[in-house]
Amino acid sequence: MTKRKTAKIKDLKPVSISEDQLKEIQTMVQQMNNAQMEIGRMETRKHIINHEFTLMEGNMRKKQTELQEQYGEVNINIQDGTITYPEDEQADKKD
């Protein structure tokens, strides 16, 4: 008996997506990557600003301590620099 050769049935499943679909997906992925990169830059900048703010707070506390040592427990108007003394100290000075 001779074996009969038959042609193989072709698999009709697609092997890739269309060029338009590929470009659309690549664009979306690129946009997402860009957004993630920008978020990373913003978070890094936020960290730097938070660090700088912490240093500013430390400098402010140091200056407050210096002013308190020089003027005592007072309120200072940051607009014009005038000093307001608490009520009990003003009463002591009048006597």
Characterization of the model:
The protein is 64% helix and 4% strand. The protein has 95 residues and is mostly helical. The protein has a two-stranded antiparallel sheet with strand order 1-2. A hairpin with a 6-residue loop joins strand 1 and strand 2 (83-84).
Keywords summarizing the entry:
single chain; 95 residues; two-stranded antiparallel ribbon; mainly alpha
What is the total number of structural domains? 1
Query: Treating each run of at least 4 consecutive H or I residues as one helix, how many helices?
Result: 2
Low-confidence stretches: none
| Largest sheet strand order | 1-2
Rg, Å, rounded:
37 Å
The counted number of beta strands is 2
Name the beta content range: under 5%
Mean pLDDT: 89
* End-to-end C-alpha gap: 133 Å
Question: Helical content, roughly?
Answer: 55-70%
Q: Could you give a short account of the major beta sheet?
A: 2 strands, antiparallel
Morphology call: rod-shaped
Structural class comes to mainly alpha
Helix-strand blueprint:
Blueprint: H1 19-71, E1 75-76, E2 83-84, H2 87-94
What's this model, at a glance?
64% of the residues lie in helices and 4% in strands. It has 95 residues and is mostly helical.
